[in-house]
Structures are given as structure tokens and as C-alpha cells.
Write a structure and sequence with these properties.
Elements: H1 2-14, H2 48-62, H3 72-77, H4 88-104
Region (Disordered): 102-136
Protein name: GDSL-like Lipase/Acylhydrolase family protein
Length: 136
């Protein structure tokens, strides 16, 4: 089900790639991202290496070199990683609590506060790769 939705969304977005100024980065079709070394233990969220892989796909599409210190190339060179985390521990720590939350109408975010509850300005680094001078 997830694959079918992702494929439809990717196909719909691919049409936008023909628009001027649009760079299409197809992370959904990147089979390397299915390697569990890119995913957190819950298998739902990317870990820091997974975010670096996605960012490296964007940089590559823009023609910007990917920093070696991100470690993305090392994972690819290391061959396939562990195939599965489907253990009793995984089901006890992630699947059963998820089922419990769904049955009781709760969310995993209930009772949590925002990491950044107040909007703050973002300072852009005009010195980075591919950066253009900031207006003003």
C-alpha cells in the first residue's frame, strides 16, 4: 500500500520537473534508502545517516559535491547491511505500543512539547557551497 501511494505521488511530482527552476529529486525510487542502516530503530523515521543520504541526493541533483564526512558513500561501499529488525524486541517496543495507541485513540505525540515552540528567524550562511549573496 505504501509503495503504491509513493509511486503515484512520485509520478505526479515528476511532471513538475519540467517547470523552469524546478529540480526533481526522486528519493522514493532510491533503492539504497531501503537499507535499514539509514533508519531509526522504529523503522518509520530516518536516522541522521538517512537524512544525510536524502540531503546527498539533493546536493547531487544540484551538482554540488557531497561532503565525505557525512558517511553516505561508506554505507554504499560497505554492501548490504542487516536485512531485518523484525525481532520480538522490535514488536514489544514499537508495534504493540502503536496498536495500543490506536485502540485507545491516543497519539505518540500526546503530552509532548514542541522542540521549538516559538518561531525564530533563520540565518542563512552566504558562504556555503552554491550560495548566492543575500539581498540587502
Amino acid at each position: 500500500m505504501f509503495d503504491a501511494r509513493g509511486a503515484r505521488l512520485t509520478l505526479a511530482l515528476r511532471d513538475l520537473a519540467d517547470l523552469p527552476g524546478v529540480t526533481f529529486v526522486d528519493n522514493f525510487s532510491d533503492r539504497a534508502l531501503r537499507d535499514i542502516r539509514y533508519w531509526s530503530p522504529d523503522k518509520l523515521h530516518l536516522n541522521s545517516l538517512g537524512h544525510a543520504k536524502v540531503a546527498s541526493n539533493v546536493l547531487s541533483a544540484l551538482g554540488v559535491p557531497v561532503p565525505e564526512e557525512w558517511g553516505v558513500a561508506e554505507v554504499a561501499a560497505g554492501g548490504p547491511g542487516q536485512r531485518s529488525r523484525n525481532t520480538a524486541t522490535y514488536y514489544r517496543e514499537y508495534v504493540l505500543p502503536w496498536i495500543g495507541r490506536r485502540l485507545t485513540g491516543r497519539s505518540s505525540g500526546d503530552g509532548r512539547t514542541a522542540k521549538r515552540a516559538t518561531l525564530e528567524p533563520v540565518v542563512l550562511d552566504a558562504e556555503g557551497p552554491g550560495a548566492e549573496p543575500l539581498p540587502g
